[in-house]
Each structure stands twice: as C-alpha cells, then as structure tokens.
Amino acid sequence: MSKILIGSDHGGFKLKGIIINHLKEEGYEVQDFGCYSEESCDYPQIARAVSKAVIETGEKAILVCGTGIGMSIAANRFKGIRASHCTDTFTARMTRMHNDSNILCLGERITGSGLALDIVDIWLKTEFEGGRHQRRINMLEN
Ligand code: RB5
Description:
The structure is a single chain. The protein is an alpha/beta fold. The protein has a single domain, classed as Sugar-phosphate isomerase, RpiB/LacA/LacB (Ribose 5-phosphate Isomerase B, Chain: A), CATH 3.40.1400. Helices cover 49% and strands 17% of the residues. It contains 6 helices and 5 strands. The chain has helices at residues 13-25, 43-57, 69-75, 89-99, 113-125, 132-141; strands at 3-8, 29-32, 60-65, 83-85, 103-107. It has a 5-stranded parallel beta sheet with strand order 2-1-3-5-4, with helices on both faces. Strand 1, helix 1 (13-25) and strand 2 (29-32) form a beta-alpha-beta unit. The longest helix has 15 residues, at 43-57. The termini are far apart. D-ribose is lined by residues 9, 11, 43, 65-67, 69-70.
C-alpha cells in the first residue's frame, strides 16, 4: 500500500480532511502531520515537518493552506523538495512528468473540493518522464 504524507494549516484544514477521506477510500495509507483543528496556526512549521519527512522517506506529500502559496514557498526552501502549487489538472500532470514534483500544494480558498480531488488523483498517478528532465532536476539540486 502506498503511503501519502499530508499537512495543512487552519486555512486548509477542511480540504485536508476531504483529501484524507478520499485517499483512504482509494486504499492509500495517510500520515497526517497536522494541524488538527481550525485554530489559527503557522504554515511554515507544518511545511517544515512534512518536507523533512519527504526528504527522509522519499514518500510524496500534500500540503494545503488558504491559497497553497505559503505552503509551496515554505516547502521549496528545503533541498530535495520540489513543491508544486496546482490549481488545474494539466499543471498537476506536467509537474509530475517534467519536475518529478514530490509535494502537491493546494489552496482551500482557491480550488473547490471536486477539482482538488481530480488534481490529487492525477498528480499521484502520473509518472516522472526522466531523461532530459532528470538532467534539469540535477541542476537544481547541485
Ligand atoms: C492563513 O490565513 C493563510 O495566510 C494561509 O493559509 C496561506 O494562505 C498562506 O499562504
């Protein structure tokens, strides 16, 4: 069974719950790094914990905040993280194929839950193409 790491701040808490339920229905194991209520909290702390776990385990993760932008800025500070803020399915597919994206960022206040779940499904199922794209990723890492 594939494992997916997930985290949100208060701005993404409701959408995170919908995504967790969906992933479990699809047979994924889900590890939730918080937050655990709609009480105001700080997205950089959640992004840090999830990013470190992605680097250590090689697993993929989903981060949700109000816009998806704060989480993507925070996660991309960590070497080895390629966090993609997606608001459409084309971008979700392309960022897996070309960027080997390892964290998907979503905005609860931007993207409705139906579209968000389509983005999640496509992002999780699309494979990295490698080849010239791996060369470019190596340039990012080095
Ligand atoms: C919280 O109000 C909001 O700023 C946060 O969820 C996120 O959108 C930041 O980028």
